Amino acid sequence: MSIAFTVNGEAKRVEVPETATLLDVLRNHLGLMGTRYGCGLEQCGSCMVLVDGQPAHACTREVGTVADRKVTTIEGLGTPARPHALQQAFLDEQAGQCGYCLSGIVMSAKALLDRNPTPSRGDIVAALDKHLCRCGAHQRILRAVERAAATLRNGGRA
Amino acid sequence: MNARSLPASLVDNPRLDRWIHFQPDRTVRIATGKVEMGQGVVTAIGQIAAEELDLPIDRVVVLSGDTTNGPDELYTTSSLSVEVSGGSVRLVCAEVRAKALERAALRLNCSRDDLSVVDGQFLQNGAATGQDYWTVASEIDLTQAVTGTAPVKPASSYRVVGHSVPRLDLPAKLSGAAFVHDVLPKDVLHARTLRQPNRGATLASLDEAAIRRAAARHHLGGELQIIREANFVAFVSPVESVAQAAAAAAPAHARWDNVRRLEPAHQEAAWLKGQPSDDRRIGAWPAPATPPKRLVQMTVSRPYIAHASMSPSCALAEFRDGHLTVRSHGQGMHPLRKNLAPVLGLPVEAITAQHLHGAGCYGHNGADDAALDAALVAMRIPGRWIRLQWRREEEFGFEPVGPAMLVTLHVDLDERGRPADWTTEIWSPTHVQRPGSGSGYLLASEALANPPSDVAPFDPPEERGGGGTRNAVPLYDVPAHRILHHLVMRPPVRTSALRGLGALPNVFAIESLIDDLAARVAEDPVAYRLSILSEPRARRLVELVAERAGWASRGPSGTGKGLGLAFARYKNRAAYAAVVAAVTVQETVKVDRVWCVADAGLVVNPDGARNQLEGGIVQAVSWTLKEQVKLDAEGIASRDWESYPILRFSEVPEMQVEFVDGAGNPTLGGGECTVGPTAAAIGNAVNHALGVRIHDMPLTRERIMAALLKT
To answer: For the segment B465-508, what is each residue's pLDDT rounded down to a tens digit?
Structure first.
């Protein structure tokens, strides 16, 4: 079946069963490999993307449910040469070790900052608590989100 | 310097061109056998090369884990990378710099002493000469063996080493760059496995038709190949979701004989006692003939724990024209190809193994096993790239786990309440079953027609830091110390290396006992420690961390709030770390804050190293409070993040980690130095908070309630 939706600002159309997962479609049909497979059970957050600005686990989300919606992945944020304020803040804090969890965490952080430009530490913890990080970079990640919030409030690149 | 004092990596890989190569784009490629796992080793090695060659770090390209062009440095383990590989790169670069200057001096008809190097350019008495590394590179014979005789720079002149450099690999990873999991070669075939439940289990029947029906039910299209080789089964399809659906359906359609049944008691460390074991005595044996006068005993335990990497293991393999290429996130590519060769019946030279990044593994997880799985499929489908991805339940269910341990201390005290005689008794399965190490095999080899023979397990020797005995010797001033090590021969699950090996349970035991001994003589735990700790570097850390944490104003015991301190030097020869933990205990333990002061000698990349120490603290908090691999009749039962919870953002303590200035001393591996002290500091803090000690990890709600009922 043919499903149309927007990914990172571009209109896309894929021919897949509507029960296919969004993760599978992003990776194997659209070549967007930055959204990671971690568990397939909505338990780790590695696959988090935004659907109409809301965090969604791509590993279980059926692609049929995103028809005509806007999906944002890590590739939609910025590049090493032109990073989004969140990506830059993560670099400034060296917030990460292996980096496998970061795509999903950055997406949840983006959703948070989009709806709440002045989050408290508690707000950030609550927004990221569905994400796992096994390397233990949590405190750096929390500081990075705070730093990005400050940058964005001061007119930094969103 | 003679050849005997060269680092092991240079003895094994003496040719300069194994390590360094001048590239036409005016970069220098430095090769290391150690691999990046998120610990920042590639950046640290790049810093060392940039320093010795007088290059900006952006002219250094680090090639890591490549059997074709890089050195064989075995596995990336035991916090040895900067010491051993970094030490080797330092000597190689110093020597190549000297050779390059020699050639330039000849060309310029000047003395070598007139030349200096700035940004890779050779200056004569400060003036440009038009010569640089790349103009003379073709005249330097890099096929020569390293001599180790060129002088290295004094630490006082460092401008790159010892300064925090951002991780070279992080910008790309923050923009979605590829891990091995994310590489899709043209016409790749996706593969999943059906795992043999245990060694010796035989596949009695497999209903392939039912599996095909299940995979087709999703109308995903794409053919499905089912590869069977004895008791190894793989599902292969150009469509990933078809392979996935087949693997998900397969266990219900497979019947196995000779399945081993486990019992719930097997999951507890207490089960280890009384099992057949290989017993070794280390240290001051025989024990004194006189009976102890003031014997104190304590037993602590740690259960089986998982590496629990964020990415289930994955590998790529292609068999083409008789040559196998494997891409893997394993910890050593040279060992991997050596281990693959006999299983596949290929000469070692017919295999190329290249490292690609994966998620952090913290030890020996499923990475190497996935590489064999991929290779087995690739050998059956020549000419096509195979991407073999383990499922989450497969990673939890079949990776080797960190061994359970039981540690009993028997300590006789002198009349002042100080340890006079100390025996550590340890029960533990082996901590290292890396393939090729003797007792370990690549998992799927056990499922093939001629499985490797069952070899008795053994532990790393003491000169490599030991396994179950790692950190079993206290650094305190104890007149006589001995170890009785019971290496348990047949654990219920496959065990292997996990960050720190036996250090965590051993340090937990030592530091718990020391606190109890202080209480026996009504002394402050810090003062008591200092009274039996004479090594200056150790004393300094204990004093400093106590000061940072405000130890002097520590409150009374039993209030529900606790402050605990612990100290260790990793492997008794690597980095030192002293840790204080502040906890709140109600029904569960919350670690509020952790202070850590460490001495790792010369720290190449301070912020990168701090990141490692912080990560070790978080992991140790998670292990100590939450983690245990659960077993049921069929094997490992905790196969997802619900049944194997780890520390979350809302549970992570505030942290303050600092290094004392150690630049005058050689680098000491630091990546694992915080795990033991953190666990022990938590144990002591909980003891302080409750007025009662919990000896068994994890420190769960049930154990706290049970301990409180006993008071």
So the answer is: 999 999 999 999 999 999 999 999 999 999 999 999 999 999 99
Instruction: In chain A, count H helices and then E strands.
Output: 5, 5
**Cα-Cα-Cα-Cα dihedral sign, residues B78, B81, B84, B85:** positive
Instruction: Copy the structure tokens of residue B277.
Output: 């074991």
Q: Where are the beta strands (DSSP E) in chain A?
A: 2-7, 10-15, 48-51, 54-57, 70-72
A85-153 CATH: 1.10.150.120
Confidence of residue B2 (pLDDT cuts 50, 70, 90): very low
Contact yes or no for A134 and B619 at CB 8 A: yes
**Alpha helices (runs of H) in B362-401, residue ranges in sequence order:** 367-380, 392-398
Say yes or no: B402 contacts chain A, CB-CB below 8 A.
no
The token pair that represents B341 in the structure block: 């060769």
Confirm or reject contact between A19 and chain B (CB < 8 A): yes
Residue B138's CB is within 10 A of a number of other CB atoms, namely 9
Would you call B133 helix, strand, or coil by DSSP? helix
Partner A contacted by B179 (CB < 8 A): yes
Which numeric CATH code is attached to A2-73? 3.10.20.30
Residue B193 contacts residue B373 (beta carbons within 8 Å): yes
Q: Does B499 touch chain A (CB under 8 A)?
A: no
The region, left, alpha or beta by phi > 0 then psi within -120 to 50, assigned to residue B229 is: beta
Tell me the domain boundaries of chain B. 3-172, 180-258+308-398, 405-431+466-710
The CATH number of the structural domain formed by B3-172 is 3.30.365.10
B365 in contact with chain A, both atoms CB, cutoff 8 A:
no
pLDDT tens digits along B499-530 = 999 999 999 999 999 999 999 999 999 999 99
Cα–Cα distance measured from residue B598 to residue B619, given in angstroms and rounded to the nearest whole number: 17
Q: Does domain B405-431+466-710 have CATH number 3.30.365.10?
A: yes
Class of the domain covering B180-258+308-398: alpha beta
CB neighbours (10 Å) of residue A10? 9
- Contact across the interface for B184 and A28, Cβ inside 8 Å: yes
Say yes or no for a CB contact (<8 Å) between A35 and B618.
no
Identity (one letter) of the amino acid at B100?
Answer: A
Those residues with Cβ within 8 angstroms of residue B553's Cβ, 6 or more apart along the chain or in another chain? none
Q: What is the pLDDT of residues B157-168, one digit of tens each?
A: 999 999 999 999
Give pLDDT tens digits along chain A (158 positions): 899 999 999 999 999 999 999 999 999 999 999 999 999 999 999 999 999 999 999 999 999 999 999 999 999 999 999 999 999 999 999 999 999 999 999 999 999 999 999 999 999 999 999 999 999 999 999 999 999 999 999 987 66
Give the closest of A28, A32, A100 to B310, CB-based: A100
**B220 shares contact with chain A (CB less than 8 Å):** yes
Q: Where are the domains of chain A?
A: 2-73, 85-153
- Chain A, 24 to 53: residues with Cβ < 8 Å from chain B are 24, 27-28, 31-41, 43-44, 46
Name the residue facing A100 among B179, B219, B646 (closest C-beta): B179
Q: Cis link prior to B286 (omega < 30° from 0)?
A: yes
Q: Dig out the tokens for B465 from the structure.
A: 């830091």
What DSSP line would sit under B499-533, residue for residue? TTTTHHHHHHHHHHHHHHHHHHTT--HHHHHHHT-
Of B313, B499, B310, B611, whose CA–CA distance to A97 is shortest?
B611
B182 contacts A33? CB cut-off 8 A: yes
Binary contact (A106, B174; C-beta < 8 A): yes
Do B180-258+308-398 and B405-431+466-710 show the same overall fold? yes
Find chain B residues with C-beta within 8 A of A98's C-beta. 37-38, 310, 357-360
